[in-house]
Design a protein that fits this description.
Strand order of the largest sheet: 3-2-1-4-5-6
CATH topology of the largest domain: Rossmann fold
Number of domains: 2
Helix content: 25-40%
Number of strands: 11
Shape: elongated
CATH class of the largest domain: Alpha Beta
Order of helices and strands: EHEHHEHEHEHEHHHEHEHHEHEHEHH
Structural class: alpha/beta
Largest sheet: 6 strands, parallel
Number of helices: 16
CATH superfamily of the largest domain: HAD superfamily/HAD-like
Strand content: 5-15%
CATH architecture of the largest domain: 3-Layer(aba) Sandwich
Distance between the termini: 47 Å
Length: 385
């Protein structure tokens, strides 16, 4: 251990939430907390998966201890060194914004796939050595620990250590197939996101919001199933910085047009490029979580932006909605071309005068006087999203 600063049949329904209290989570890193990048070694390439920071914050507030266990065979292969791994972990901690030491302990396993797992110096998953050390040093029982990861090796580690295990399917690999190939004598539940997995473990999260924030890859597969069932997909996009009545009515009307409403939320970087350095007021994960809490919304994903053309081509929506202050002519040309290619129906919802994030921000920044209120009320032509 290196210390550090044809689709398969659907799986059986997940088991009921455990009645015991989870005291510790051992978390995989790549594909579980952050987007999978093969042999990641550059901190700038790290992107948190949707909802991860909020989910781990909720676990912290529930008094659950967090541990990190990551296989890094790129070290053994000579592709990068341990300093690069430490730098990536430091970047992860900074992005999570959960304090200077969110993880009680971090285990980096730099060994290659041929390392003997029974060696006392090998921590590569599925070796249970790290879990056994946590049990000993923190006086925890196996049933009080849950391994969470996106690969079969993560759940094989839980199996070898005797702890519980939960899978997260981020869309990169077929975790169900991996588990079937391992022939483990136990069924492990699999969830689409870390937030949904933690909700299953008893962490107090909104169950709706916990299961509605996805990666684009996961939604591409879900879109295939939706199309095969003949169900109509409605897609919209925007910043949604401060939710207000204009947003809520717009989303309710959009949801009524089809069977599922999906929202593409602008990343923080794209919002700064579009609206200036003072925006957004709420970060991308908080904005996505807030939208996912609405009954009218079925799925959320964060896109790097500033334009949605690639995502439109990937998801091929039946209907694309936009606020009524847009027209076909004022849509971004690349997005308009993608919509035409995918034959999506474009529908403009009525614009609600006086309901915009920009006018709300201006009102909050002006002194509370009758003149200020009158000035704020004039900014009704700003984009709702």
């Amino acid at each position: 251990m290196i210390p550090s600063s044809s689709p398969p049949p659907p799986p059986p329904p997940p088991p009921r939430r455990p009645s015991h209290r989870t005291k510790a989570l051992i978390l995989d890193r790549d594909g579980t907390l952050i987007e999978h990048v093969p042999y990641l070694h550059k901190p700038d390439d790290i992107r948190l998966l949707p909802g991860v920071a909020a989910a781990l914050r909720a676990a912290q507030h529930a008094g659950i201890q967090l541990f990190l266990h990551t296989n890094q065979s790129g070290v053994a292969r000579g592709m990068f060194n341990l300093d690069a791994v430490h730098a990536c972990n430091d970047r992860l901690i900074a992005l999570l914004d959960l304090g200077p030491r969110p993880f009680e302990r971090i285990c980096i396993a730099p060994e290659g796939p041929d390392a003997p797992l029974d060696s006392p110096n090998v921590y590569r998953k599925p070796s249970p050595r790290f879990a056994h050390e946590i049990m000993h040093d923190y006086q925890l029982q196996p049933h009080e620990i849950c391994y969470i990861g996106d690969r079969g090796s993560d759940l094989a580690t839980a199996h070898a250590a005797g702890t519980r295990g939960v899978g997260v399917a981020t869309g990169l690999d077929d975790l169900h197939a991996e588990l079937a190939a391992l022939s483990l004598d136990k069924i492990y539940p699999i969830f689409p996101t870390l937030a949904a997995a933690l909700h299953h473990e008893g962490v107090p999260l909104d169950p709706g919001a916990a299961t509605r924030v996805f990666t684009l890859d996961a939604l591409v597969e879900r879109r295939r199933r939706l199309a095969a069932e003949g169900r109509r997909l409605v897609l919209t996009n925007g910043v949604f910085d401060l939710l207000h009545r204009g947003h809520l009515e717009y989303l309710q009307k959009s949801a009524q047009l089809g069977d599922e409403l999906w929202i593409a939320v602008n990343s923080d970087d794209s919002v700064r490029r579009l609206k200036g350095p003072d925006r957004p007021l709420n970060n991308e994960h908080d904005r996505a979580f807030a939208l996912a809490s609405l009954r009218s919304v079925d799925a959320i994903f964060i896109f790097p932006g500033p334009r949605l053309a690639d995502e439109i081509r990937a998801l091929r929506p039946d209907i694309y909605t936009k606020a009524g202050d847009y027209t076909r002519e004022t849509l971004d040309p690349s997005e308009r071309e993608a919509l035409l290619e995918t034959r999506a129906q474009i529908i403009f919802q009525p614009f609600i005068a006086g309901r915009s994030t920009t006018s709300l921000i201006q009102r909050m920044r002006l002194p509370e006087t009758p003149a200020a209120a009158a000035a704020a009320s004039t900014t009704t032509q700003s984009r709702q999203q």
